[in-house]
Amino acid sequence: MKPNSVSPFVIPKEWDPSEVGIQLRRLQHDQPVLKIFVDAVINRFITKQDHRLAKKRIDFLRTLLEELGLRKEFQGSLDELEFRKIQLEIKRLKLETEKKECNRREKSNMKSLSWSTNVTC
User: Fold this and answer.
1) Which residues contact 62 (CB under 8 A, 6 or more apart)?
2) Is 112 part of a structural domain of the chain?
């Protein structure tokens, strides 16, 4: 460990915005370590979350990095976060479309069943 270097970080076991913020502020002057921390936070708390929760966390992390003046250094990570956010939105829209299509088919099937049971011989 170099003199004046920051001690190792700890990734919180659960999502805690204040703890993530504290760690980012503490690590902001040690870019390689900060990059590892940011990647770990993304992998643990954003990548496998539902779209709404992931979008909130992406926005939080992006805002915090911008506030710390680290936008330029982490533009690649921010771009990846934005890309992930767009992917989540696309997934959500596809699921909504599938749900609407299923509902439409179900109504159509119900009408045809209703019609066939009303027919008299």
Assistant:
1) 78, 81, 82
2) yes
Total number of domains constituting the chain: 1
H helix count then E strand count, the chain: 4, 0
Q: Mind listing the pLDDT tens digit for each residue in 18-71?
A: 999 999 889 888 888 888 898 899 888 888 788 788 889 888 988 888 888 876
Domain assignment of residue 5, yes or no:
no
pTM to 2 decimals?
Answer: 0.61
Please state the separation of Cα 54 from the chain's center in Å.
2
Within-domain flag for 109:
yes
Closest by Cα among 49, 23, 52 to 38: 23
